[in-house]
Amino acid sequence: MDLHTALLLLHATAGTLGLLLGPVAALTAAERRDATWLISAYQVAVTVVCASALGLVALAPAAFWWLIPFAFGTQAAIVVARRTTDPSRRVRLLGGSYVALVTALLVVSWSNPLAWILPTLLGVGLVESAAARAPRRHHHVH
Which pLDDT belongs to residue 135? Predict the structure, then answer.
């Protein structure tokens, strides 16, 4: 197996896992505060997707250069989501990372300009709905 095939296989496997875990992690984060292990599993999947995407870019920069901002933006959203104490912000960040994953999948799979637009149009409403259900932070007065 050559390097390109290995990276592509790793990328597709981690991407599938991320696409399966993303909604579960975001919805669980919206419903409960103890979604840490799910968010961690989603972050691992997305980290592998992003790293393998950068490897694919290195092998064919002209074809895949546009994956670079997707990779860094998606990873940054998850890192910030893990660190925030605001549940609705966490849901929005996880949802945004998921919209990026879906957008990348559609763009490489479907040569239609709508692939760039539809995930955002559909995702914003779903993410905001989940964020509205997120538990509110409690402010303690000392």
Answer: 75
